[in-house]
């Protein structure tokens, strides 16, 4: 390969890297801009074929271009890349840049047997997929590893990868850091970013050079782009879903002064030329585990990230970093790894498809037990892994599909080709990171939309948008739709289905009923008192503000939701973003919910159960049916106890069993468990062979006898320990406490002003006696 004539800071340690790499794994620790992402793969290629794992797609494609240019090669020949839906390399390509998701699938297929050296770039970001790949590669121990990291504990990394640590210092002209806050302790904030940012940008433009502004996400980038549009500089967005034109504009200098508005994509991997000033808002949008859910929210960055961001300035001349927070803001030291703040479903399935359970792998940080249990439960329920954590044939089918396991499970479970096609298209829309469509604002647009989509069903609209059949009142992001169509094409190809432009006719009811059968947990019902909220028995979602979900339907399938952290320590609000209205009847037909007998009624001498089907706290069906079996026995037992059948038997039985239970409590040497009179009577009727009301004509009261306190002891016991006492103008209930040797007589009714006298009551020798009326308790003397 041809060596580049451009000198980079990392070139100073080339010999040390090559010597170390020939013997063992190597960790390169350096700041941004040293050239590690472009030089190390070229040096490592002397040992064989090199695979470079880059955390972001934009970094993959850009670095491929830089390396290819530096060695005088064309992209796809000596140097290539592989990202979602796009690849340019062959079996002869010596250096391949790829995203972690792609590499994990390659690992599951052949354990990366076609590569000799694997480089994990920007490992300090601690992405879930790169942490898993690191654990898998360590376990396999068949590749030479290169790990690059800017900020992590070097000793811990060296031990984990059994690697030699080398450092490369980036050349810097110095960075002057300034803070823009009312107090040195002020934390970064996402409020009014555009208004706070503009004056800082205006002053920075005066000193010359290009500006790099770090913002939390696309929403804030769009707001700030509008606010900064009249300042005479090119304002360029840089995030995961920007167009190729914007990406090239951001990564290449121009004659005009530039303001690059970027997410964390510019924090590592990519070096943006010409940057003199970095403006750091101190905010990022990231996921975290909260109350058992993966919530997406604005977070303050870590000190390590702040250092990374500042390091983007000072490469070509004296640099500046303007921070929109206080100098002593209490930032955390490092950003927590993704595996500690997201669910582990995809990670567990990926490991299983690679031949390992997660407990067979060693991770740099321990995995949360709660997340492990939740992932295991979900995957077993899907049939993706067995009880030992081993991947099933169904799991192997789900994993290669480049979407979340839930959507893969839905696609594979569809019972007809039209439904499989529809699920591919819907999944493609929902798995595209950018919002693909929105209804136009205004009442007229809403009326037209509902006339076109009579159910106001998001599923109908999403599938129509992908297929180009949407209403005129729907605004479509064409770039996002193109990405969704590429994903749909990939899914359809994997499932051997025709492409979206030759799709089968979509049948809404058949499709949604099929979904309920496969994933009943997606069925939600409205809360009776809070109609904006829906529950499924395990979780709750709230209609998002821009939802057009109708007011009347009381049930829905919720295909997508996002979780936002609230103000409380455990509060997390889940918003439903793709909903399909449906009637309770469909849930009933799918046998969802639990059947409960609300009451029993008698009609024409027969007993009927009033049966309710309850799902997530809502009654979704109610009917009457003739009681039979255990339900009938319960009704007969209640009638006996109420005196409606076998007059006097129920009262006598209740009397016997009540005093039996008291006997066990007060005097029995070996107390037996208390007896429930209704349960005992039901069991007795069953033992007697009662199956219908008519069978009671064959039962004699003598057949229903409780073998309790012997008859020769019963009367004495009742006299000694009565449960009710009637005195002149006073009726009392009696309560006994054996452990305290205390009796409490409770006022029930009567006109007597004073309480009972001790001589009026049973002897209760050795017991202390108290009288209670309302909240007043006094000793009885």
TrEMBL record:
Signal peptide: none annotated. InterPro entries: DEAD/DEAH_box_helicase_dom, Helicase-assoc_dom, Helicase_ATP-bd, Helicase_C-like, P-loop_NTPase. Keywords: ATP-binding, Helicase, Hydrolase, Nucleotide-binding. Residues 196-362 form the Helicase C-terminal domain. It comes from the Bacteria. GO terms for molecular function: ATP binding; helicase activity; hydrolase activity; nucleic acid binding. Residues 17-170 form the Helicase ATP-binding domain. Transmembrane segments: none annotated. This is DEAD/DEAH box helicase. It comes from Enterovibrio norvegicus FF-454. The lineage of its organism: Bacteria, Pseudomonadati, Pseudomonadota, Gammaproteobacteria, Vibrionales.
């Amino acid at each position: 390969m041809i060596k580049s004539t451009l000198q980079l800071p990392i070139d100073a340690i080339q010999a040390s890297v090559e010597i170390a790499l020939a013997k063992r794994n190597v960790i390169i620790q350096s700041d941004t801009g040293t050239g590690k992402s472009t030089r190390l793969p070229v040096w490592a290629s002397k040992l064989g074929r090199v695979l470079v794992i880059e955390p972001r797609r934009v970094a993959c494609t850009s670095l491929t271009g830089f390396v290819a240019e530096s060695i005088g090669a064309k992209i796809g020949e000596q140097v290539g890349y592989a990202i979602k839906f796009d690849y340019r390399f062959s079996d002869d390509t010596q250096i391949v840049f790829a995203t972690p998701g792609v590499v994990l699938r390659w690992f599951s297929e052949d354990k990366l047997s076609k590569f000799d050296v694997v480089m994990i770039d920007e490992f300090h970001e601690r992405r879930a997929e790169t942490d898993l790949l690191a654990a898998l590669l360590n376990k396999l121990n068949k590749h030479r590893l290169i790990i690059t990291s800017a900020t992590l504990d070097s000793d811990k990394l060296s031990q984990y990868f059994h690697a030699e640590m080398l450092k490369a210092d980036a050349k810097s002209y110095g960075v002057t850091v300034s803070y823009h806050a009312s107090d040195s302790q002020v934390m970064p904030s996402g409020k009014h970013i555009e208004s706070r940012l503009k004056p800082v940008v205006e002053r920075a433009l005066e000193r010359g050079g290009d500006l790099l502004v770090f913002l939390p996400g696309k929403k804030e980038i769009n707001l700030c782009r509008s606010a900064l549009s009249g300042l005479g500089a090119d304002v360029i967005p840089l995030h995961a879903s920007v167009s190729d034109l914007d990406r090239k504009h951001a990564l290449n200098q121009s004659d005009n002064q530039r303001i690059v508005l970027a997410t964390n994509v510019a924090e590592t991997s990519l070096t943006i030329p010409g940057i003199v000033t970095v403006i750091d808002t101190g905010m990022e949008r990231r996921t975290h585990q909260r109350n058992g859910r993966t919530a997406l929210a604005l977070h303050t960055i870590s000190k390590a990230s702040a250092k990374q961001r500042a390091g983007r300035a000072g490469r070509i001349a004296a640099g500046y970093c303007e921070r929109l927070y206080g100098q002593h803001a209490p930032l955390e030291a490092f950003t927590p790894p993704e595996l500690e703040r997201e669910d582990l479903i995809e990670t567990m399935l990926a490991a299983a498809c690679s031949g390992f359970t997660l407990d067979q792998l060693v991770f740099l940080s321990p995995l949360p037990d709660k997340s492990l249990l939740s992932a295991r439960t979900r995957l077993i329920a899907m049939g993706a892994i067995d009880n030992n954590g081993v991947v099933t044939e169904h799991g192997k089918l789900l994993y290669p599909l480049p979407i979340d396991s839930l959507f893969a499970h839905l696609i594979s479970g569809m019972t007809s080709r039209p439904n499989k096609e529809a699920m591919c298209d819907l999944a493609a829309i929902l798995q595209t990171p950018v919002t693909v469509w929105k209804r136009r604002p205004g009442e007229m647009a809403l009326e037209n939309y509902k006339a076109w989509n009579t159910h106001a069903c998001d599923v109908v609209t999403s599938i129509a948008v992908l297929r180009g059949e949407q209403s005129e009142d729907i605004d479509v992001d064409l770039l996002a739709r193109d990405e969704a169509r590429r994903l749909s094409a990939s899914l359809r190809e994997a499932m051997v289905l025709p492409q979206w432009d030759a799709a089968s006719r979509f049948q809404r009811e058949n499709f949604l009923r099929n979904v309920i059968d496969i994933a009943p947990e997606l069925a939600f019902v409205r809360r009776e008192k809070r109609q904006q909220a829906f529950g499924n028995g395990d979780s709750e979602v709230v209609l998002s503000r821009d939802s057009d979900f109708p007011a009347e339907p009381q049930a829905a399938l919720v295909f997508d939701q996002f979780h936002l952290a609230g103000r409380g320590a455990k509060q997390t609000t889940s918003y439903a973003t793709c909903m399909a209205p449906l009637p309770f009847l469909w849930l009933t037909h799918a046998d969802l919910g639990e059947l409960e007998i609300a009451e029993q009624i008698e009609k024409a001498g027969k007993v009927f159960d009033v049966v309710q089907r309850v799902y997530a706290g809502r009654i979704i069906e109610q009917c009457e049916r003739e009681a039979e079996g255990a339900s009938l026995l319960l009704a007969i037992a209640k009638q006996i106890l109420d005196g409606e059948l076998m007059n006097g038997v129920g009262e006598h039985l209740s009397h016997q069993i009540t005093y039996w239970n008291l006997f066990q409590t007060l005097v029995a040497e070996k107390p037996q468990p208390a007896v429930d009179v209704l349960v005992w009577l039901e069991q007795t009727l069953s033992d007697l062979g009662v199956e219908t009301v008519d069978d009671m004509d064959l039962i004699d009261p003598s057949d229903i006898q409780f073998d309790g306190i012997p008859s020769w002891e019963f009367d004495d016991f009742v006299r000694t320990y009565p449960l009710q006492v009637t005195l002149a103008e006073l009726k009392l209930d009696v309560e006994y406490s054996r452990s305290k040797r205390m009796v409490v007589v409770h006022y029930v009714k009567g006109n007597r002003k004073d309480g009972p006298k001790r001589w009026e009551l049973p002897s209760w020798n050795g017991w202390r006696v108290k009288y209670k009326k309302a909240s007043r308790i006094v000793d009885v003397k």
